[in-house]
Amino acid sequence: MRPEESLYPAGWRRIGEKDLRRVEHLLGVHDPEAAGFYLQQALEKFLKAFLLSKGWELKRIHDLETLLNAALVYDPSLEPYRAVCQKVTGFYMVERYPLMTDMALTEVDVHSSLEQAGGLIERLRAAFPQLRCQAKLVARGQAIMPPDQIERSLQTFRYGTWNDFDKFWAWKLEVERGSAHILDRAHQDETAERLCGFLRGWLVYRGCRNPNRWQDFRQSLRQIPEAYDSIRRYSLLEFSSIPQAPLEFIWHELGRVKEADGQRTQGNYYVIAVCKPLMFLWGQTLSFDSQNRKHIPGKFGAPRYHRWDFAAWKGVLERFQRELNGDAETVKYMEKVSEDKYGTAPIVPYGRFLDILYF
């Protein structure tokens, strides 16, 4: 980094993003030592960008835990990322010093650390003032995608997965015409049965090491009726008005199912473990599977990693909310498609439509 850039947060963040892309490339060519080194470099630059944006005096420090300690002064919620900072600092030593090569850094080590660090990176990105300003500069009235392109996407999407969602959504709307809902005691078992059938085909738990995943999934559905009832009437257009506590409770309950022991973590879960079931239940989130993550435009800030934390997911949906609220043409088209498919209904599954557009 050039000396004249070194005191500017944007310059450090820009190089951090570049280092992050190098990590993914180096993992693709099976060079874990170099990938680990650039992961350390990326985290170092993101942390320094964050600190410089707070008025911190630049110091020559490579130890991520030391930088994290400085960042905690401004944001104590970053504490859960201490372990990954400690671990990734070691990757810097492996690549830089010959005597450390016996540590045998593997691709699994780097992949795992990259996923764990994903939440930290998203927190730091969200905190940069320039990113907040950028969000305000989203063009108002400009369509997310031209209606004819939306129509082509919807028409060419695989029929089977459309049919799965349509069947479930039509049933959900019928159940919820009155005061009942699909997770109340009268409907909970049928909801679980329907979802388990669909989600197996959607490969939600592919690679899952939890042998009791379907049992745990059913148990999670039994834990969230009250939280679900408090969010189900909100659409993506009103996302920022939703009480955070029930949303975060649902995040943990659905996310834990794909963990090896089925237990809650500090919140950094496989994003599809939360979002694929929640897209069926609520309709307002995208599934954020690997295809989505590749195609979603950068302005929405969707992480490319498999694991997200709650803050990262919430930030992405808030950006989609802002974009949709400034795009009357797209909203009107989605409302029309919803009415044609499901009849007049109080809520439109905006998340599902966006999921298809970016698939």
Supply the key terms.
359 residues, mainly alpha, Four Helix Bundle (Hemerythrin (Met), subunit A), 2 domains, two-stranded antiparallel ribbon, 62% helix, 1% strand
Number of spatially distinct domains:
2
Q: Taking strands numbered 1, 2, ... along the chain, how are they ordered across the largest sheet?
A: 1-2
Question: How much helical structure, as a percent, in the residues?
Answer: 55-70%
Which structural class fits the helix and strand makeup?
mainly alpha
Give the low-confidence spans: 1-6, 129-141
* Beta content: under 5%
Roughly what is the average pLDDT, rounded to an integer?
85
Largest sheet: 2 strands, antiparallel
Q: Judging from the principal axes of the Cα atoms, what is the shape?
A: globular
Rg over alpha carbons: 22 Å
Order of helices and strands: HHHHHHHHHHHHEHHEHHH
Distance between the termini: 36 Å
Q: What is the number of strand segments? A: 2
Put simply, the count of helices is 17
SSE diagram, text form:
Blueprint: H1 9-28, H2 32-53, H3 64-72, H4 82-96, H5 107-127, H6 129-136, H7 147-156, H8 159-175, H9 188-201, H10 213-223, H11 225-231, H12 244-255, E1 269-270, H13 271-282, H14 290-295, E2 307-308, H15 310-325, H16 328-342, H17 350-357
Antiparallel strand pairs: 1-2
Helix pairs in contact: 1-2, 2-3, 2-4, 2-5, 4-5, 5-15, 9-10, 11-12, 12-13
Structural overview:
With about 350 residues, the protein is mostly helical. The protein has 2 domains: about 5-135, Nucleotidyltransferases  domain 2 (Four Helix Bundle (Hemerythrin (Met), subunit A), Up-down Bundle), CATH 1.20.120; about 145-355, no CATH class. It is about 60% helix and about 0% strand. The chain has 17 helices and 2 strands. It has helices at about 10-30, 30-55, 65-70, 80-95, 105-125, 130-135, 145-155, 160-175, 190-200, 215-225, 225-230, 245-255, 270-280, 290-295, 310-325, 330-340, 350-355; strands at about 270, 305-310. The chain has a two-stranded antiparallel sheet with strand order 1-2. The longest helix has 22 residues, at about 30-55. It is globular, with a radius of gyration of 22 Å. It starts with 8 loop residues before the first helix and ends with a helix. The model is unreliable at about 1-5 and about 130-140 (pLDDT under 50).
